[in-house]
Amino acid sequence: MDSSQQIDIFTSAGHLFFAKNFSFQMLEIGKQVNVPSEEYQSQLLAASSDSSHLAIVITFNGRGILSEKIPSILHKNHVPTVLISSTEYHPEIKYYDYQLFLSSKENHYKKMSSYSTRLSLLFVLDTLYTAYFKRHYEDNIEKKTKYYKKMTGE
Q1: Which CATH number is 6-149's, of 3.40.50.10490, 3.40.50.1820, 3.40.50.2300, 3.40.50.150?
Q2: I need a labelling partner for 76 at 20 to 30 A (CA). Which of 8, 69, 93, 128 fits?
Q3: Is-contact 71 57, C-beta < 8 A?
Q4: With 70 as the cut, is the pLDDT of residue 36 above it?
Q5: pLDDT recorded at residue 109
Q6: What is the DSSP string of 67-108?
Q7: CB-based burial of residue 149 (10 Å sphere; 0-12 exposed, 13-18 middle, 19+ buried)?
Q8: What is the CA radius of gyration of the chain?
């Protein structure tokens, strides 16, 4: 995350809200994170990415374009890619440089809601943010303070 000029998160459905929250947190310290919300935007962002980007693909079991199409495009463009998925999802690992895991204790079709998936995704993204923030703690505190002062006119 440190060496990337831009971070792009590819996800869908309920995971979008957590990805957008991560994007907001990173923007507070000056790091741009794109979270496309539509399929076409996701494909266009993947196609226009290069090795200066870092891609994070969030999918519980790899449905839709997140299973093959987006990872394949990113791989062809030499984009370093992190997969965040359930422990039961076993994609072609050639597309990913790293894999982080979500709780796999929910059955997609036999559940009331995605409680453990949401909590574990929030934990993973908050951990990534915290680790990134901590690497340059003093600089990030300074940036955050400077941005808020500019916004409030201080």
Answers
A1: 3.40.50.10490
A2: 128
A3: yes
A4: yes
A5: 59
A6: TTHHHHHHHHTT--EEEEEETT----GGG-SEEEEE-----T
A7: exposed
A8: 16
